[in-house]
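Q: Here's a chain of 94 amino acids. Please give me its 3D structure as C-alpha cells.
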Amino acid sequence: MPTTPRVRTRPSLSPVSLSVAQQVGLVEALSRSHVGFNRRRLAFGGSRSDLVGLPTLREARKEIYSLPGKQVLPTGSGAHLASLAAAVQEKVTA
C-alpha cells in the first residue's frame, strides 16, 4: 500500500493585518469585552501592534450596530429585530 507524505503547515511569519471591522468581528466572535481586547492589544505591543485602540473600536462597533440588520426594538415581551428581512439579508451577504 503506497503511503503519502505528510505535509505540515506552519504559521506564517509575516503579520496579518486586520481591518477595524474585522477586529470588531473578532471581539464579538470571541465574546470578549473591550477591556479584554485591550489587554490582548497591550500584550501584543500596544500602539506598535496593528490592533486599534478602544476609542476606535467603540466607534466602529457603533457604526456596525447602526446597520438595519442590527436594529432591535425593545417591547414588554423582550427585544425583537426591527427588520427580520434586513437581518437575514445581512447573514446571506456575509
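Q: Can you summarize the key feature?
A: The mean pLDDT is 78.
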